[in-house]
Structure to design on (134 residues):
């Protein structure tokens, strides 16, 4: 089973034509380019299982940070990603069966709390994914 961020990376590359390592990153947001999306695995909830104790579903969480030179572009990209991923159900990515991906709240402006230059904006999105254990 891939990490959640690795699977979501592949989905975003296919849907939005991001290029991994150029404008899409996992775990470390570079200083450049300013216009980028970064994915962070953030743990999640305890796995769901059966009464016998078998783990059946992982409930992993992911944070996505969208950064851009302009506020309008950053928030537009953040909402496009949210619309694409929220309530995505019953699909396979890589070798993992996904039951559901859902947004955990809205799009948050985190520009003032970041270590960015004053010439950019940054937004945060959070998701939970229910995936079959394999």
């Amino acid at each position: 089973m891939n990490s959640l961020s690795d699977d979501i990376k592949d989905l975003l590359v296919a849907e939005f034509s991001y290029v991994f390592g150029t404008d899409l990153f996992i775990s470390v947001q570079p200083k450049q380019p300013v216009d980028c999306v970064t994915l962070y695995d953030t743990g999640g909830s305890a796995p769901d299982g059966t009464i016998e104790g078998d783990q059946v579903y992982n409930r992993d969480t992911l944070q996505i940070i969208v950064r851009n030179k302009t506020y309008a572009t950053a928030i537009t990209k953040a909402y496009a990603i949210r619309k694409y991923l929220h309530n995505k159900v019953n699909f396979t990515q890589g070798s993992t069966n996904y039951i559901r991906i859902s947004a955990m709240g809205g799009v948050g402006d985190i520009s003032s709390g970041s270590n960015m230059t004053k010439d950019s904006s940054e937004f945060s999105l959070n998701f939970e994914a229910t995936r079959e254990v394999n």
User: Anything to note?
Assistant: DSSP finds two helices and seven strands in the chain. The CA atoms of residues 96 and 121 lie 33 Å apart.
